[in-house]
# Entry
Amino acid sequence: MKSLRSFVSRYPIYTLATTAIFGVVATLGFAEDTNKNGKKLVVGFSQVGAESGWRTANTESIKSEAAKRGIDLRFSDAQQKEENQIKAIRSFIAQGVDVIAFSPVVETGFEPVLQEAKKAGIPVVLSDRAVKVSDPSLYKCFIGSDFIEEGRRAANEVVKLTGGKGGIAELVGTVGSAPAIDRAKGFREVLEKYPDLKIVMSQSGDFTRAKGKEVMEAFLKAPNAKDITVLFAHNDDMALGAIQAMEEAGIKPGQDIKIVSIDGVRGAFEAMKDGKLNVTVECNPLLGPQLFDLIEKVAKGEEVPHRVVTQEGVYEQSQAATELPKRQY
Ligand code: AHR
# Structure
Protein backbone atom coordinates (compact mmCIF):
# COMPACT_ATOMS: atom_id res chain seq x y z
CA MET A 1 0.00 0.00 0.00
CA LYS A 2 2.83 2.32 1.00
CA SER A 3 4.75 1.57 -2.21
CA LEU A 4 1.58 2.09 -4.29
CA ARG A 5 1.09 5.52 -2.73
CA SER A 6 4.70 6.50 -3.43
CA PHE A 7 4.36 5.21 -7.06
CA VAL A 8 1.26 7.35 -7.56
CA SER A 9 2.96 10.45 -6.17
CA ARG A 10 6.08 9.89 -8.27
CA TYR A 11 4.41 8.87 -11.56
CA PRO A 12 0.92 10.46 -11.57
CA ILE A 13 0.72 10.35 -15.38
CA TYR A 14 1.01 6.47 -15.53
CA THR A 15 -1.62 6.11 -12.84
CA LEU A 16 -3.99 8.37 -14.72
CA ALA A 17 -3.46 6.40 -17.94
CA THR A 18 -4.10 3.04 -16.24
CA THR A 19 -7.33 4.31 -14.66
CA ALA A 20 -8.49 5.58 -18.08
CA ILE A 21 -7.74 2.19 -19.73
CA PHE A 22 -9.78 0.33 -17.08
CA GLY A 23 -12.64 2.78 -17.61
CA VAL A 24 -12.68 2.17 -21.39
CA VAL A 25 -12.54 -1.66 -20.92
CA ALA A 26 -15.51 -1.52 -18.56
CA THR A 27 -17.51 0.59 -21.01
CA LEU A 28 -16.65 -1.60 -24.00
CA GLY A 29 -17.72 -5.01 -22.81
CA PHE A 30 -17.10 -5.88 -19.22
CA ALA A 31 -19.69 -3.55 -17.76
CA GLU A 32 -22.30 -4.98 -15.41
CA ASP A 33 -25.94 -5.16 -16.49
CA THR A 34 -27.93 -2.28 -15.13
CA ASN A 35 -31.54 -1.42 -14.34
CA LYS A 36 -33.36 1.61 -15.76
CA ASN A 37 -31.64 3.90 -13.25
CA GLY A 38 -28.21 2.80 -14.44
CA LYS A 39 -27.56 0.75 -11.27
CA LYS A 40 -26.45 -2.91 -11.12
CA LEU A 41 -29.45 -5.14 -11.91
CA VAL A 42 -30.77 -7.00 -8.86
CA VAL A 43 -32.79 -10.17 -9.53
CA GLY A 44 -34.45 -12.41 -6.94
CA PHE A 45 -34.81 -16.02 -8.13
CA SER A 46 -36.74 -18.70 -6.25
CA GLN A 47 -35.85 -22.20 -7.45
CA VAL A 48 -37.98 -25.34 -6.90
CA GLY A 49 -35.18 -27.31 -5.20
CA ALA A 50 -32.53 -29.82 -6.22
CA GLU A 51 -34.81 -32.80 -6.87
CA SER A 52 -33.35 -33.98 -10.18
CA GLY A 53 -30.40 -33.88 -12.56
CA TRP A 54 -32.52 -31.57 -14.71
CA ARG A 55 -32.94 -29.10 -11.84
CA THR A 56 -29.20 -29.09 -11.05
CA ALA A 57 -28.44 -28.22 -14.68
CA ASN A 58 -31.13 -25.52 -14.65
CA THR A 59 -29.73 -23.90 -11.47
CA GLU A 60 -26.20 -23.98 -12.87
CA SER A 61 -27.37 -22.35 -16.13
CA ILE A 62 -29.13 -19.55 -14.22
CA LYS A 63 -26.28 -18.87 -11.78
CA SER A 64 -23.53 -18.90 -14.39
CA GLU A 65 -25.46 -16.64 -16.78
CA ALA A 66 -26.14 -14.11 -14.00
CA ALA A 67 -22.46 -14.11 -13.03
CA LYS A 68 -21.44 -13.65 -16.68
CA ARG A 69 -23.69 -10.60 -16.96
CA GLY A 70 -22.62 -9.07 -13.63
CA ILE A 71 -26.16 -9.34 -12.26
CA ASP A 72 -26.69 -9.31 -8.48
CA LEU A 73 -28.63 -12.61 -8.23
CA ARG A 74 -30.39 -13.31 -4.94
CA PHE A 75 -30.96 -17.07 -5.25
CA SER A 76 -33.22 -19.03 -2.94
CA ASP A 77 -33.82 -22.82 -2.89
CA ALA A 78 -37.42 -23.69 -1.89
CA GLN A 79 -36.65 -27.37 -1.19
CA GLN A 80 -39.80 -28.34 -3.12
CA LYS A 81 -42.07 -26.46 -0.69
CA GLU A 82 -44.53 -23.84 -1.90
CA GLU A 83 -44.52 -21.99 1.45
CA ASN A 84 -40.74 -21.49 1.14
CA GLN A 85 -41.25 -19.94 -2.30
CA ILE A 86 -43.91 -17.57 -1.04
CA LYS A 87 -41.59 -16.52 1.82
CA ALA A 88 -38.71 -15.98 -0.63
CA ILE A 89 -40.86 -13.85 -2.96
CA ARG A 90 -42.02 -11.72 0.01
CA SER A 91 -38.40 -11.25 1.04
CA PHE A 92 -37.46 -10.19 -2.53
CA ILE A 93 -40.26 -7.62 -2.40
CA ALA A 94 -38.96 -6.32 0.95
CA GLN A 95 -35.45 -6.09 -0.50
CA GLY A 96 -36.79 -4.04 -3.42
CA VAL A 97 -35.17 -6.15 -6.16
CA ASP A 98 -35.59 -4.98 -9.78
CA VAL A 99 -37.16 -8.21 -11.08
CA ILE A 100 -38.45 -11.39 -9.42
CA ALA A 101 -38.13 -14.68 -11.31
CA PHE A 102 -39.22 -18.09 -10.11
CA SER A 103 -39.99 -21.64 -11.10
CA PRO A 104 -43.18 -22.50 -9.18
CA VAL A 105 -43.23 -25.84 -7.35
CA VAL A 106 -46.98 -26.17 -7.98
CA GLU A 107 -49.46 -24.27 -10.16
CA THR A 108 -51.86 -22.82 -7.61
CA GLY A 109 -51.64 -20.60 -4.51
CA PHE A 110 -49.39 -17.84 -5.82
CA GLU A 111 -52.01 -15.20 -6.71
CA PRO A 112 -51.86 -13.20 -3.41
CA VAL A 113 -48.06 -12.91 -3.36
CA LEU A 114 -48.00 -12.00 -7.06
CA GLN A 115 -50.50 -9.24 -6.31
CA GLU A 116 -48.13 -7.98 -3.59
CA ALA A 117 -45.28 -7.88 -6.12
CA LYS A 118 -47.46 -6.01 -8.60
CA LYS A 119 -48.46 -3.49 -5.92
CA ALA A 120 -44.78 -2.95 -5.10
CA GLY A 121 -44.11 -2.32 -8.83
CA ILE A 122 -41.77 -5.32 -9.18
CA PRO A 123 -42.21 -7.28 -12.42
CA VAL A 124 -42.27 -11.08 -12.30
CA VAL A 125 -40.95 -13.57 -14.86
CA LEU A 126 -41.82 -17.29 -14.67
CA SER A 127 -39.13 -19.78 -15.57
CA ASP A 128 -39.72 -23.46 -16.50
CA ARG A 129 -43.14 -23.88 -14.81
CA ALA A 130 -46.37 -21.90 -15.01
CA VAL A 131 -48.88 -20.75 -12.38
CA LYS A 132 -52.68 -20.67 -12.55
CA VAL A 133 -53.88 -17.11 -11.88
CA SER A 134 -57.08 -15.24 -12.73
CA ASP A 135 -55.11 -12.17 -13.87
CA PRO A 136 -52.43 -12.92 -16.49
CA SER A 137 -50.86 -9.49 -15.96
CA LEU A 138 -49.53 -10.74 -12.60
CA TYR A 139 -46.47 -11.95 -14.50
CA LYS A 140 -44.76 -10.41 -17.53
CA CYS A 141 -43.55 -13.53 -19.22
CA PHE A 142 -43.34 -17.31 -18.89
CA ILE A 143 -40.39 -19.08 -20.51
CA GLY A 144 -40.32 -22.88 -20.54
CA SER A 145 -41.21 -26.10 -22.30
CA ASP A 146 -44.57 -27.14 -23.67
CA PHE A 147 -45.22 -29.93 -21.15
CA ILE A 148 -48.44 -31.09 -22.84
CA GLU A 149 -46.50 -31.64 -26.06
CA GLU A 150 -43.83 -33.57 -24.12
CA GLY A 151 -46.58 -35.88 -22.82
CA ARG A 152 -47.89 -36.38 -26.38
CA ARG A 153 -44.39 -37.14 -27.65
CA ALA A 154 -43.85 -39.69 -24.87
CA ALA A 155 -47.15 -41.41 -25.72
CA ASN A 156 -46.28 -41.59 -29.42
CA GLU A 157 -43.02 -43.30 -28.47
CA VAL A 158 -44.92 -45.77 -26.26
CA VAL A 159 -47.18 -46.54 -29.23
CA LYS A 160 -44.15 -47.17 -31.46
CA LEU A 161 -42.50 -49.45 -28.89
CA THR A 162 -45.61 -51.52 -28.13
CA GLY A 163 -47.47 -51.49 -31.44
CA GLY A 164 -50.36 -49.86 -29.62
CA LYS A 165 -51.00 -52.76 -27.24
CA GLY A 166 -50.00 -53.21 -23.60
CA GLY A 167 -50.17 -52.18 -19.96
CA ILE A 168 -48.56 -48.94 -18.86
CA ALA A 169 -47.17 -48.13 -15.41
CA GLU A 170 -46.91 -44.35 -14.96
CA LEU A 171 -44.51 -42.61 -12.58
CA VAL A 172 -46.05 -39.17 -12.13
CA GLY A 173 -44.08 -36.01 -11.17
CA THR A 174 -44.76 -33.79 -8.16
CA VAL A 175 -48.51 -33.68 -7.48
CA GLY A 176 -49.99 -30.31 -8.51
CA SER A 177 -46.92 -29.24 -10.51
CA ALA A 178 -47.36 -27.97 -14.06
CA PRO A 179 -45.15 -30.65 -15.67
CA ALA A 180 -46.97 -33.49 -13.86
CA ILE A 181 -50.43 -32.15 -14.79
CA ASP A 182 -49.58 -31.30 -18.40
CA ARG A 183 -47.50 -34.36 -19.22
CA ALA A 184 -50.28 -36.63 -17.92
CA LYS A 185 -52.77 -34.67 -20.02
CA GLY A 186 -50.81 -34.82 -23.29
CA PHE A 187 -50.04 -38.51 -22.74
CA ARG A 188 -53.71 -39.44 -22.22
CA GLU A 189 -54.79 -37.36 -25.20
CA VAL A 190 -52.78 -39.64 -27.54
CA LEU A 191 -53.70 -42.81 -25.65
CA GLU A 192 -57.40 -42.23 -26.30
CA LYS A 193 -56.82 -43.40 -29.87
CA TYR A 194 -55.38 -46.74 -28.70
CA PRO A 195 -57.96 -48.72 -26.71
CA ASP A 196 -55.59 -51.69 -26.30
CA LEU A 197 -52.99 -49.53 -24.59
CA LYS A 198 -54.04 -48.97 -20.97
CA ILE A 199 -52.59 -47.30 -17.89
CA VAL A 200 -52.67 -50.10 -15.33
CA MET A 201 -50.90 -48.25 -12.49
CA SER A 202 -50.14 -44.60 -11.82
CA GLN A 203 -48.50 -42.97 -8.81
CA SER A 204 -46.32 -39.98 -7.97
CA GLY A 205 -42.57 -40.42 -7.54
CA ASP A 206 -42.13 -36.68 -6.84
CA PHE A 207 -39.56 -36.31 -9.66
CA THR A 208 -36.82 -37.95 -7.54
CA ARG A 209 -34.75 -41.07 -8.18
CA ALA A 210 -35.31 -42.45 -4.67
CA LYS A 211 -39.10 -42.13 -4.88
CA GLY A 212 -39.11 -43.48 -8.44
CA LYS A 213 -37.37 -46.63 -7.17
CA GLU A 214 -39.68 -46.95 -4.17
CA VAL A 215 -42.87 -46.62 -6.25
CA MET A 216 -41.58 -49.02 -8.94
CA GLU A 217 -40.85 -51.60 -6.22
CA ALA A 218 -44.48 -51.28 -5.09
CA PHE A 219 -45.74 -51.54 -8.70
CA LEU A 220 -43.77 -54.78 -9.15
CA LYS A 221 -45.32 -56.26 -6.01
CA ALA A 222 -48.90 -55.38 -7.02
CA PRO A 223 -51.26 -58.30 -7.89
CA ASN A 224 -51.46 -57.11 -11.52
CA ALA A 225 -47.69 -56.53 -11.89
CA LYS A 226 -47.51 -58.97 -14.82
CA ASP A 227 -49.71 -56.59 -16.86
CA ILE A 228 -46.92 -53.99 -17.02
CA THR A 229 -45.26 -54.02 -20.43
CA VAL A 230 -44.09 -50.42 -20.51
CA LEU A 231 -43.16 -47.68 -18.03
CA PHE A 232 -43.81 -43.99 -18.64
CA ALA A 233 -41.82 -41.86 -16.17
CA HIS A 234 -42.48 -38.11 -16.06
CA ASN A 235 -38.72 -37.56 -15.69
CA ASP A 236 -35.42 -39.39 -16.21
CA ASP A 237 -34.49 -39.45 -12.52
CA MET A 238 -37.60 -41.47 -11.63
CA ALA A 239 -36.93 -43.79 -14.62
CA LEU A 240 -33.36 -44.35 -13.39
CA GLY A 241 -34.68 -45.24 -9.93
CA ALA A 242 -37.23 -47.61 -11.52
CA ILE A 243 -34.46 -49.29 -13.57
CA GLN A 244 -32.69 -50.12 -10.31
CA ALA A 245 -35.92 -51.54 -8.84
CA MET A 246 -36.48 -53.69 -11.95
CA GLU A 247 -32.94 -55.05 -11.90
CA GLU A 248 -33.20 -55.91 -8.22
CA ALA A 249 -36.41 -57.81 -9.04
CA GLY A 250 -34.67 -59.75 -11.84
CA ILE A 251 -36.46 -57.86 -14.64
CA LYS A 252 -34.54 -56.58 -17.67
CA PRO A 253 -35.32 -52.85 -18.04
CA GLY A 254 -35.67 -51.75 -21.66
CA GLN A 255 -36.46 -55.34 -22.71
CA ASP A 256 -38.93 -57.07 -20.36
CA ILE A 257 -40.42 -53.67 -19.60
CA LYS A 258 -39.91 -50.87 -22.15
CA ILE A 259 -39.19 -47.44 -20.68
CA VAL A 260 -39.98 -43.93 -21.95
CA SER A 261 -39.09 -40.89 -19.84
CA ILE A 262 -38.66 -37.13 -20.12
CA ASP A 263 -35.72 -34.68 -19.72
CA GLY A 264 -32.75 -35.97 -21.73
CA VAL A 265 -30.16 -35.82 -18.95
CA ARG A 266 -26.78 -37.52 -19.38
CA GLY A 267 -27.81 -40.41 -17.06
CA ALA A 268 -30.68 -41.24 -19.42
CA PHE A 269 -28.34 -41.34 -22.41
CA GLU A 270 -26.00 -43.66 -20.51
CA ALA A 271 -28.94 -45.95 -19.67
CA MET A 272 -30.04 -45.91 -23.34
CA LYS A 273 -26.50 -46.80 -24.43
CA ASP A 274 -26.65 -49.78 -22.05
CA GLY A 275 -30.02 -50.81 -23.52
CA LYS A 276 -31.89 -50.17 -20.23
CA LEU A 277 -34.00 -47.19 -21.31
CA ASN A 278 -35.72 -46.94 -24.68
CA VAL A 279 -36.54 -43.29 -25.27
CA THR A 280 -36.05 -39.90 -23.58
CA VAL A 281 -38.13 -36.91 -24.61
CA GLU A 282 -36.05 -33.76 -24.23
CA CYS A 283 -36.92 -30.97 -21.78
CA ASN A 284 -34.22 -28.30 -21.97
CA PRO A 285 -33.00 -26.94 -18.59
CA LEU A 286 -30.41 -24.54 -20.03
CA LEU A 287 -32.71 -21.54 -19.76
CA GLY A 288 -30.21 -19.04 -18.27
CA PRO A 289 -29.27 -17.04 -21.41
CA GLN A 290 -32.84 -16.68 -22.72
CA LEU A 291 -34.21 -16.00 -19.24
CA PHE A 292 -31.83 -13.11 -18.56
CA ASP A 293 -32.41 -11.64 -22.04
CA LEU A 294 -36.07 -11.39 -21.05
CA ILE A 295 -35.36 -10.16 -17.52
CA GLU A 296 -33.15 -7.36 -18.83
CA LYS A 297 -35.88 -6.20 -21.20
CA VAL A 298 -38.49 -6.37 -18.45
CA ALA A 299 -36.22 -4.36 -16.12
CA LYS A 300 -35.96 -1.63 -18.76
CA GLY A 301 -39.74 -1.57 -19.16
CA GLU A 302 -39.54 -3.00 -22.71
CA GLU A 303 -42.28 -5.25 -24.15
CA VAL A 304 -41.69 -9.02 -24.02
CA PRO A 305 -43.84 -11.94 -25.26
CA HIS A 306 -46.11 -13.33 -22.55
CA ARG A 307 -45.08 -16.90 -23.48
CA VAL A 308 -41.76 -18.19 -24.81
CA VAL A 309 -41.62 -21.91 -25.66
CA THR A 310 -38.27 -23.70 -25.70
CA GLN A 311 -37.37 -26.00 -28.63
CA GLU A 312 -36.77 -29.67 -27.84
CA GLY A 313 -36.27 -33.09 -29.47
CA VAL A 314 -36.84 -36.81 -28.86
CA TYR A 315 -33.98 -39.32 -28.54
CA GLU A 316 -34.13 -43.08 -29.09
CA GLN A 317 -31.66 -45.80 -28.06
CA SER A 318 -30.04 -45.93 -31.50
CA GLN A 319 -28.94 -42.27 -31.14
CA ALA A 320 -27.54 -42.58 -27.60
CA ALA A 321 -23.89 -43.39 -28.39
CA THR A 322 -23.45 -40.50 -30.82
CA GLU A 323 -25.46 -38.00 -28.74
CA LEU A 324 -23.93 -38.79 -25.34
CA PRO A 325 -20.61 -36.95 -25.85
CA LYS A 326 -22.53 -33.86 -27.03
CA ARG A 327 -24.86 -33.64 -24.01
CA GLN A 328 -24.30 -30.52 -21.93
CA TYR A 329 -26.24 -31.74 -18.89
O1 AHR B 1 -40.20 -28.61 -14.40
C1 AHR B 1 -39.32 -29.45 -15.08
C2 AHR B 1 -39.25 -30.77 -14.40
O2 AHR B 1 -38.85 -30.60 -13.06
C3 AHR B 1 -38.27 -31.77 -14.98
O3 AHR B 1 -38.79 -32.60 -15.94
C4 AHR B 1 -37.95 -32.56 -13.76
O4 AHR B 1 -36.84 -33.42 -13.91
C5 AHR B 1 -37.78 -31.49 -12.78
O5 AHR B 1 -37.63 -31.86 -11.49
